Amino acid sequence: MYEQLKLDNQLCFRLYTAARLIAGAYGPYFESLGITYPQYLVLLVLWEKDRQPVNDIAKRLHLETNTVTPLLQRMERQGLVTRIKGEVDTRQRIVCLTDAGKAMEEQAKDIPSRLSAEVTKHVSMEELTSLIPSLDKLIEGLR
Predict the structure, then answer these.
(1) Residue 136 domain-assigned?
(2) Number of structural domains the chain divides into
(3) Could you give the C-alpha distances from 130 to 35, 109, 125, in angstroms and in order?
């Protein structure tokens, strides 16, 4: 057997597993809000800066616009966002939070600290935070 093909030697497996388990840990919090993890990510982007073009949201999330558009359509049906035509370029769609989308920020404000409390039972917040620059470099290198 090749050493490089052993599961225990795969960084990708650890990253995949960690991402899957973290997303799963968020599940109960999002269920109570009626949103999914990808919708939460869109909301995070819009809570930072409302009224953004679809392309900008997609870039920020490292996703293609054809992935983000159906997500936004569902969020629009839920009453969390609206999409309006751009003023300069009417082909462009600008995504805006509705009052319900804005109000959800208050409901979601404790989610990161609750999840951190669960995660830091096993690893310190300092250890996790120290991973961010390396993960950012990895993401940028793979893009």
Answers:
(1) no
(2) 1
(3) 29, 23, 8
Residue 87 within a domain: yes
The verdict on residue 143 lying in a domain is: no
Length of the chain: 143
Cβ neighbours of residue 143 under 8 Å, at least 6 residues apart? 62
CA nearest to 68, candidates 41, 104, 48, 50: 41
Asked, for residue 55, whether it belongs to a domain, the answer is yes
- For 51-101, the DSSP string reads SEEHHHHHHHTT--HHHHHHHHHHHHHTTSEEEEE-SS-TTSEEEEE-HHH
The set of long-range contacts for 119-126, using a CB threshold of 8 Å and a minimum separation of 24, is: 119/22, 119/25
Owning domain of residue 26: 9-115
How would you classify the pairing of strands 93-97 and 81-85? antiparallel
CATH of the domain at 73: 1.10.10.10
pLDDT truncated to tens, each residue of the chain (143 aa)? 899 999 999 999 999 999 999 889 999 999 999 999 999 999 999 999 999 999 999 999 999 999 999 999 999 999 999 999 988 888 899 999 999 999 999 999 999 999 888 888 888 889 989 999 999 999 999 88
